[in-house]
C-alpha cells in the first residue's frame, strides 16, 4: 500500500479502518476554525510493516493526522490497523496554554479480546476549580447519560486518576455484534456530545494572563510527560515498527510538548 499523504491534514488512506467515523467527525468540527497542518515528518505521516509468521505475514499500517488553529496548539490522531487483529484511534487535542481549556482525549482500541473505550476532557490542573469546574458542570450530565449504558472499563490506576475528569467515559466492550451495536448506538453519540462540549468551550475561551498561562503550561507539560512515559501502546508499536522509531514517535509526535 502506498500513501499519497503530503502533510498532516491530508485524509487518512487506511482502508476499512474501524474508527474512521470518529476522525471524520473531528475533522468536520475543526473545519470552521481555519485549520493548518501541524508539521510532521513523512516518516511519521505513514508507516507500514509486517507482522505474524514468516509463512503468513500480515501488514500493519499507521498514519498520523494533525493540525493547529488559533486556539489549538496541536490536534493529532494516531490511526493504526493491523488486519483484523488490532485497530487503534488515539486522538488528543491540546489547547494553547493562553486559554484556560482542558485536553480532549479519545483512545479507542480493538484487541483480540474486545474493544477498549476511553473518552474524556482531561484537566491540566485537576485541583484548580477555576480550570475545572465550568468544564465538569457541562460534562458530567453527558457522562451520566451514556456511561450507565456501557460495561465498566474496570478500576483506574491510582497514579492515573489525576489526569482524568470525574466524567471519564471508560468501557470494555465485547467484539462481535453486541460490541458493534454499542459502538453505533452509544459510543458514536457520546463522542459527538463530548466533542461538541469541547468545541463550545473553545469558542467561548478568552486569553488569560501570562501568570495563569505559565501555570497551565506546566500542567500541560506534566500531563504530556506522563502520557509519554506510560503509553500503553509502546510495546505494541515496538513490535510492529522497532524501538528507535517508536520512541521517536511517542516523544516527538504523540506527546511532543517539552
In words, what does this structure look like?
Helix content is 40%, strand content 24%. The chain has 258 residues and is of the alpha+beta class. It has a single domain (20-254), classed as 3-Layer(aba) Sandwich (oxygen-dependent coproporphyrinogen oxidase), CATH 3.40.1500.20. Strands 1, 2, 3, 4, 5, 6, 7 and 8 form an eight-stranded antiparallel beta sheet that branches. It is globular and about 60 Å long.
Find the CATH topology.
oxygen-dependent coproporphyrinogen oxidase
How many structural domains are formed by the residues?
1
Tell me, what's the shape?
A: globular
Query: What integer value in Å does the Rg equal?
Result: 18 Å
Q: State the share of residues found in helices, binned by percent.
A: 25-40%
**How would a textbook summarize the main sheet?**
8 strands, antiparallel
**Text of the CATH class:** Alpha Beta
Q: What's the mean pLDDT score?
A: 94
Secondary structural class: alpha+beta
Uncertain stretches of 5 or more adjacent residues: none
DSSP, total strands: 8
Following the backbone from N to C, one meets helices and strands in this order, namely: HEHEEEEEEHEHHHH
Beta-sheet strand percentage?
Answer: 15-25%
Termini gap: 34 Å
DSSP helical segment count: 7
Q: Can you name the CATH architecture? A: 3-Layer(aba) Sandwich
Amino acid at each position: 500500500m502506498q500513501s499519497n499523504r503530503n502533510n498532516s491534514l491530508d485524509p487518512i488512506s487506511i482502508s476499512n479502518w474501524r474508527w474512521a467515523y470518529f476522525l471524520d467527525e473531528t475533522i468536520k468540527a475543526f473545519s470552521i476554525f481555519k485549520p493548518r497542518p501541524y508539521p510532521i515528518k513523512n516518516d511519521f505521516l505513514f508507516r507500514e510493516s509486517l507482522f505474524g509468521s514468516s509463512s503468513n505475514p500480515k501488514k500493519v499500517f499507521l498514519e498520523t493526522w494533525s493540525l493547529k488553529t488559533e486556539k489549538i496548539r496541536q490536534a493529532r490522531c494516531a490511526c493504526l490497523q493491523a488486519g483484523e487483529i488490532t485497530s487503534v484511534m488515539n486522538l488528543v487535542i491540546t489547547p494553547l496554554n493562553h486559554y484556560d481549556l482542558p485536553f480532549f482525549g479519545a483512545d479507542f482500541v480493538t484487541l483480540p479480546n474486545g474493544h477498549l473505550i476511553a473518552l474524556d476532557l482531561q484537566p491540566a490542573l485537576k485541583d484548580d476549580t477555576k480550570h475545572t469546574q465550568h468544564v465538569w458542570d457541562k460534562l458530567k450530565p453527558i457522562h451520566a447519560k451514556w456511561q450507565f449504558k456501557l460495561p465498566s472499563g474496570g478500576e483506574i490506576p491510582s497514579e492515573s486518576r489525576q489526569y482524568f475528569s470525574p466524567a471519564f467515559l471508560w468501557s470494555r466492550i465485547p467484539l462481535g455484534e453486541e460490541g458493534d451495536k454499542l459502538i453505533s448506538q452509544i459510543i458514536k453519540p457520546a463522542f459527538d456530545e463530548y466533542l461538541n462540549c469541547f468545541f463550545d468551550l473553545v469558542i467561548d475561551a478568552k486569553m488569560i494572563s501570562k501568570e495563569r498561562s505559565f501555570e497551565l503550561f506546566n500542567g500541560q507539560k506534566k500531563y504530556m510527560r506522563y502520557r509519554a512515559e506510560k503509553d500503553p501502546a509502546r510495546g505494541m508499536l515496538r513490535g510492529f515498527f522497532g524501538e528507535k522509531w517508536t520512541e521517536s514517535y511517542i516523544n516527538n509526535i504523540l506527546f511532543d510538548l517539552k
